[in-house]
Specification:
The complex is a heterodimer of chains A (270) and B (256).
Chain A (H helix, E strand, L loop, with lengths): L2 H11 L1 H23 L3 H21 L4 H19 L7 H21 L3 H12 L7 H20 L1 H16 L4 H23 L1 H18 L3 H13 L1 H12 L3 H20 L1
Chain B lengths: L6 E10 L2 E11 L4 E5 L6 H9 L6 E6 L9 E4 L13 H6 L14 H13 L15 H14 L4 E5 L7 H16 L4 E5 L3 H5 L4 E6 L2 E6 H4 L2 H8 L3 E6 L2 E6 L5
Helix pairs in contact in B: 3-4, 4-5
Classes of the chains: A mainly alpha (270), B alpha/beta (256).
Chain lengths: 270, 256
């Protein structure tokens, strides 16, 4: 298949995979700026794993939409983190490490008890098989992204102030605890929605890689968020192309594309 | 002082979880006061500070707040410099404008008045020329001035500073203390300064709140910072003397 034929095939036969992954990439990269700047990369890794466990949980229980199961479990995790991470008795990375392992264990145990067809869905998430994306998936992803981005745009100053200096923000009447919770809740919903479309590797990768590249490429805070969004939306195009060209799984191919995009900035900064 | 206090602790006990850190604190802060909060490490200075800021509720007792016009006083808070997350490249102006966030509605732009207030705050601490620089690239003294400007941009009734001179060289430290003195004496700002550097408070504040062994003792500088009291608190001989009109507090040398 020639390059032109690959591009035509992607556009004509897999427009939803392309659109869904671009929206997911954009949303994850935007939120990733906070994930990286707040130094909570491991929180996002744990939430991604919890989101996959949520899909497995929904499949096992039955009658529960996988995205709903995923959102429920990640939201519960956010509530638990909000409480547990304040504790000084146990280091926060130990709490996150335990949560990660628990989510992984739940997923494996539930998959063992789930029927073959539903196991296939979880396995496709783990492989990052984006080509099965449906119009309904894209609609859910687009609406979720629009709502989350709107919240972050309207309350940009609150999120920024709290991420930099929560204590001072609180003295100015900005409810730091509330905004921290809203941030993690929007992150949980974004991760849960995206993970079903693009897989866990893509979600975690796009929470970290494009935002890091944007921080190296742009010098002003507003531009970093814009650049991250663009850097998040573009790699899926190259990733899908490479997946077709070399018969790679689409998720890992897209993450590899994002890394390629990051490299020039890293080299330039050195 | 016969004025009405702008913040008044009435038999306040403070703590976290199941643990009480300080008990029965009665403390009044008056307009144009300059209060130093001192005490050994781990004595509860930060706990008292949080209650003062309104970010920690008392377990017992009451904290009353009323500025001259009857509304709760606005607090301009200057946190410890190393408590800020500095991954994003915020400029000095970005940081100072944060002092105006509470007065700007979501999605609204800053008004000309907001920008003027921020400019005046920067000029006040002599960092107008640094406005476009990245905050994280500044020296400790410049960062401290930026955080003071941010606090001033909130147009506070009370300026609260947490360890403002910690980790600074002599000239930066003196410059920051002189800025704080100027804000108090010339601008009439009420100032609360938390520090473990006793010489800083001894030469600048009007009154001292000494946090020690779960209690807060309030008094004049010479009354609280006596050699006997400090020697007992720090469990080592401490010498308080005056050199060229400046109070110096040092540990007494070991004869052996």
């Amino acid at each position: 298949m020639s390059n032109v034929e690959i591009i035509t095939t992607i556009i004509q036969q897999f427009p939803y995979a392309l659109a869904g992954s671009m929206i997911a990439g954009l949303l994850c990269a935007f939120l990733g700026v906070y994930v990286v700047s707040k130094r909570v990369v491991f929180v996002s890794a744990t939430l991604t794993e919890v989101a996959v466990a949520g899909v497995a949980f929904a499949n096992l229980v039955g009658g529960l939409h996988p995205t709903v199961g995923s959102v429920l479990l990640t939201s519960l995790a956010v509530l638990l983190f909000a409480r547990l991470l304040r504790s000084t008795a146990v280091p926060s990375d130990a709490i996150l490490g335990i949560s990660y392992i628990v989510a992984l264990t739940i997923r494996i145990l539930m998959m063992q008890k789930t029927s073959g067809a539903e196991v296939a869905e979880v396995e496709s998430i783990l492989k990052g098989d984006m080509l099965l994306v449906t119009p309904a998936h894209v609609t859910i992803m687009a609406v979720t992204a629009a709502i989350i981005l709107l919240i972050h745009l309207v309350f940009f100053r609150q999120f920024l102030f709290v991420s930099m200096d929560a204590e001072t923000a609180r003295t100015q009447g900005i409810r730091s605890g509330l905004w921290e919770f809203v941030f993690y809740l929007t992150l949980a919903v974004a991760v849960s929605t995206a993970v079903r479309i693009v897989g866990d590797l893509f979600v975690f990768g796009f929470l970290v890689i494009p935002s890091t590249a944007a921080m190296l490429a742009a010098k002003r805070v507003g531009r970093i968020f814009l650049t991250a969004a663009v850097f998040g939306a573009l790699p899926p195009i190259l990733g899908l192309f490479l997946a077709f060209k070399f018969d790679f799984p689409a998720g890992p191919a897209t993450v590899a594309s994002a890394v390629v995009l990051l490299l020039p900035w890293v080299v330039q900064k050195r | 002082m016969t004025e009405t206090p702008i913040i008044e602790f009435q038999q306040v006990s403070l703590g976290y979880g199941g643990r009480t850190i300080v008990r029965d604190v009665s403390l009044s802060l008056f307009p144009n006061d300059f209060l130093g909060i001192v005490g050994p490490n781990g004595s509860g200075k930060t706990t008292v500070l949080r209650a003062l800021l309104g970010t920690l509720s008392p377990r017992k007792g009451e904290i009353r707040r009323a500025a001259a016009n009857g509304v709760p006083p606005t607090i301009g808070y200057v946190p410890q410099r190393d408590s800020l997350e500095l991954v994003l490249p915020l400029t000095v102006r970005d940081v100072v404008m944060m002092g105006r966030y509470a007065s700007v509605r979501p999605l609204r732009r800053f008004t000309a008045a907001d920008r003027r207030i921020a400019d005046e705050a920067m000029a006040h601490v002599d960092i107008g020329n640094l406005a476009g620089l990245s905050y994280r690239d500044l020296s400790g003294g410049q960062r401290q001035r930026t955080l003071i400007a941010r606090a001033l941009a909130a147009q506070p009734d009370i300026l609260v500073l947490d360890e403002p001179t910690n980790g600074m060289d002599l000239s930066s430290r003196t410059a920051i203390l002189e800025i704080i003195r100027h804000l108090h004496e010339h601008d009439g700002l009420t100032v609360v300064m938390v520090t473990h550097l006793l010489s800083d408070v001894a030469n600048y504040v009007n009154r001292i709140a000494l946090v020690e062994q779960g209690t807060v003792r309030l008094g004049a500088v010479d009354e609280i910072l006596s050699s006997d009291r400090l020697s007992a608190i720090y469990q080592m001989p401490v010498h308080v003397s005056e050199v060229h009109g400046v109070t110096v507090i040092v540990p007494e040398p070991d004869d052996e």
